[in-house]
């Protein structure tokens, strides 16, 4: 679809699409060859009735990681950080892992650690010290497992090498040089703009942001889609940043993409390679996709409701979407390998077989996952591709059973994060 058609579609159809999916507020920006179109619809908060505009700021969640990675790559370009150097070179005493492994989520550090270490400028320092007691899921470099904690460590590296707080590094080295005038590092800056409020269950959430110690991973940063595309365009025009979208590790077959770069998710779509990232906070969600061959970027921000089909519809019109996974009757799940209980800090998942030999997954969110709006569910697992199975209940992506526990059973249930089999607990 040409940019003029996209602009017309957004102007005429966006309000209706948002209403159809129960999304309180949405903002979209599309950049094609340097020409920007943007649109917004709905409300920033159903409690106040304030309308969403193109100047409204929404939280971008984990898309923040691409900005954190860009700050790290700036240090690499200046010769201040080496990608394959041990993290301990910059943070003495830190466990075995390299900067590159943190960037591409292969460090093995338990990822979902959201401990609140305060609101002061020392919060990242204290957070990294606390990670000494956090489990190592696997040997560094062994596999991919999405890690919020790893990106907080990268944020700490940035502020140690730069000698100033992470938020100030973000503003001085990204926001100001790129002209990102509506970017807010925390609630104190966001309140200066029209700020979206997250919604869960159709109601505004009681908190605006998560803890500051997770800021480099995506707990606070808010901006307009326009500002995010200013950042994305820098990745299309700055040859020094091209290395960030070179594949570093192949992803498990879970419909997340094909590989991970140095901060970016890499997708092979029917129209060609696309890179980007997704983000979620408490009641807010965002997606960013960049098609380098067509010189197109698109950002979609929402503050609640059934945002996935809305985002898919918009992305499909601009950069295309991957085909939906469908079950393969020829692939039969291996109950003996898959059944068991798999745990992480944010979930407990039980996989069990019934008398007919069908495989069932029961997922219970824990901790911060509950705050983010995750709900328990039970679904049958259907054959899809090899060790990757497809939940029968709509709205859930494939899961992969990886590794071996020494007894012919999967060691990990992989959903983007590698949840570890709990010893001594069966799925019966």
From TrEMBL:
<dbReference type="InterPro" id="IPR001466">
    <property type="entry name" value="Beta-lactam-related"/>
</dbReference>
<protein>
    <submittedName>
        <fullName>Serine hydrolase domain-containing protein</fullName>
    </submittedName>
</protein>
<keyword id="KW-0378">Hydrolase</keyword>
<dbReference type="InterPro" id="IPR012338">
    <property type="entry name" value="Beta-lactam/transpept-like"/>
</dbReference>
<feature type="domain" description="Beta-lactamase-related">
    <location>
        <begin position="18"/>
        <end position="307"/>
    </location>
</feature>
<dbReference type="GO" id="GO:0016787">
    <property type="term" value="F:hydrolase activity"/>
</dbReference>
<dbReference type="Pfam" id="PF00144">
    <property type="entry name" value="Beta-lactamase"/>
</dbReference>
<dbReference type="InterPro" id="IPR050491">
    <property type="entry name" value="AmpC-like"/>
</dbReference>
